[in-house]
Amino acid sequence: MTVGAKGRSRGDDDGTVLLLIIGLVTIAALLVGVVTDVSALYLERRELVAAVDGAALAGAQAVDEESVYLDGLPLSGPVPLDKVAAEQAAREYLADAGVLGPKTDVTITASTTTVTVALTSRFDLPVASTVTAGSSGAAPVSASATARTAVIP
Questions:
Q1: Do 121 and 96 touch, CB atoms closer than 8 A?
Q2: How many alpha carbons fall within 13 Å on the CB side of residue 130?
C-alpha cells in the first residue's frame, strides 16, 4: 500500500470508477434497446392504422349498384352498401397495402351502411427478439376502423 502526499492510501478504491462506467454503459444500452423497440412498435401500429382506415374507406365505396339502379338513391339517409363487395374491397386493399401475413388476423364486417375492419398482428421487436432469440420478443399490435357510406341529407 502506498501513501500519497496527503496521507491517504491510493490502493483502496482502484477499479471503482471502472465498475461505475460499466454499469452506466449497461443502463444506456438497455435504454437504447427499449427506445428502439418502442419506436418500432409505434411505427408498426401507425402503419396498421393507416391500412385499416384505407380498407374501411375502400369497403364503404362499394355501393349496392343493383339496388341504386332499380330503386334509385334514397331521399335521405345512407346510400346502400353491397356487403360482399365491401368485404372484398377491404380485403383487397389490405393485401395491396402488404399488411396481411401469417401473423395477422383480420376481421371485416359489413352491414348495409358501414364497414368495420379490425387487424391484429404479432410484431417482432427488433432488439427484444434478437436478445431473447425467440418468439418472446414479439408484441401484439391491433388497429380497427369503421367507415360509413355517404349520407344524403
A1: no
A2: 6
In the block, cell 465498475 appears at 19
The pTM is what?
0.76
36 pLDDT more than 60: yes
pLDDT at 67 over 90: no
Average pLDDT on 43-50 reads: 94
**Cα–Cα distance for residue pair 109/32, rounded to 1 Å:** 40
In eight-state DSSP terms, residue 62 is -
The average pLDDT across 71-80 equals 81
| Helix or strand holding residue 6 (H, E) | none
φ and ψ of 55, to 5 deg:
-65, -40
DSSP 3: B
Query: Which positions ≥6 away from 60 have C-beta within 8 Å?
Result: 81, 86, 114, 115, 147, 148, 149
Please choose, from the candidates 78, 84, 74, the residue with its C-alpha nearest in 3D space to the C-alpha of residue 147: 78
CA gyration radius, the chain: 28
